[in-house]
Specification:
Blueprint (H helix, E strand, L loop, with lengths): L2 H7 L17 E12 L2 E13 L4 E5 L6 H8 L7 E6 L2 E2 L7 E4 L11 H6 L8 H14 L15 H13 L5 E5 L7 H17 L3 E5 L3 H7 L2 E8 L2 E11 L11 H13 L4 H5 L1
Parallel strand pairs: 3-8, 3-9, 6-7, 7-8
Antiparallel strand pairs: 1-2, 1-4, 4-5, 9-10
Helix pairs in contact: 4-5
């Protein structure tokens, strides 16, 4: 056992999961739009986005490439500023790089010279006492199944383990809103399914509010309470919300459910994908 593994392996005094339903926050978008300047002139990416996400809810954002899904996520976390409209977390306006949010990306973005444990520790809020930092990291390593890998460097672990470390680092902020941008998109199919199950297990233990961008209709239906479909509005520039679908059934859901299959087909239609060609 390495020194780092030993330091974070003793979880006997780890606190219970730190996030509960009261800690998760609601998210409200009102008339949100975003226009970018280009050498050819202004380009509107999003328009008239109205969305309410309840505290503790998981909402997936679907849409064709380039429709503004990641832009919407950045706006929600204060990483960008809307040109129009407003965004609030629990009734308070989103601030620049809002500390109430944490974001996870498609790539793990771990520091290669740091151990897995020390990468996770980077997510803990500044000013947290050292003993509490160790307890928080130990809890998250256990939650994501990384305790034995605590002392390893990112190049020594699999892609799925690295992505778990990235997720643990985001959760270390104790976020009121967790923003995930294609977090499993770079993984192989089997690892992706396992990561989806892990995210649901984590959400059960720490039910923060989650806004998830994905291109995968099946992933959206497996994870989300509701699915928001973004798309172009004929004759007007800028993507809008085309439809919002409530996903039936409690999680974890049966991936082979006929009800989900019908929803999948409808969402594929909304994305302009031939459901029959997609099934071949």
């Amino acid at each position: 056992m390495t020194a780092a593994t030993a330091l974070y392996a003793d979880t006997t005094e780890c606190p219970a999961p730190r996030i509960d339903d009261a800690s998760a926050a609601s998210l409200a978008l009102r008339g949100v739009g975003r226009t970018f300047g280009t050498p050819e002139g202004s380009r509107r990416v999003l328009r008239d986005i109205d969305l309410d996400v309840a505290a503790g809810e998981i909402v997936a954002i679907l849409g064709p490439s380039g429709c503004g899904k990641s832009t919407l996520l950045r706006l929600a976390g204060g990483l960008d500023t809307p040109t129009d409209g407003s965004i609030a977390i629990s009734g308070e306006s989103v601030r620049s790089y809002d500390p109430r949010c944490a974001i996870g990306f498609q790539e793990p973005r771990l520091f290669p010279w740091r151990s897995i444990a020390h990468n996770v520790e980077l997510g803990v809020r500044r000013g947290t006492p050292a003993a509490q930092r160790r307890k928080d990291v130990a809890h998250l390593l256990e939650l994501t199944g990384l305790t034995e890998a605590a002392g390893q460097r990112p190049h020594q672990v699999s892609g799925g383990m690295a992505q778990r470390a990235s997720l643990a680092r985001a959760l270390a902020r104790n976020p009121a809103v967790l923003l995930l941008d294609e977090p499993f998109g770079a993984l192989d199919a089997l690892t992706r399914l396992r990561m989806q199950d892990l995210l649901l297990d984590i959400h059960t233990a720490e039910p923060t509010t989650v806004l998830l961008v994905t291109h995968d209709v099946d992933e959206a239906l497996q994870l989300a309470d509701r699915v928001v479909l973004l798309g172009a509005d004929a004759g007007r520039e800028g993507a809008v919300i085309q439809q919002i679908v409530t996903v039936p059934g409690e999680r974890p859901r049966d991936r082979g459910s006929a009800e989900l299959a019908e929803l999948r087909a409808n969402l594929l239609d909304g994305l302009g994908v031939d459901r029959h060609a997609h099934a071949r």
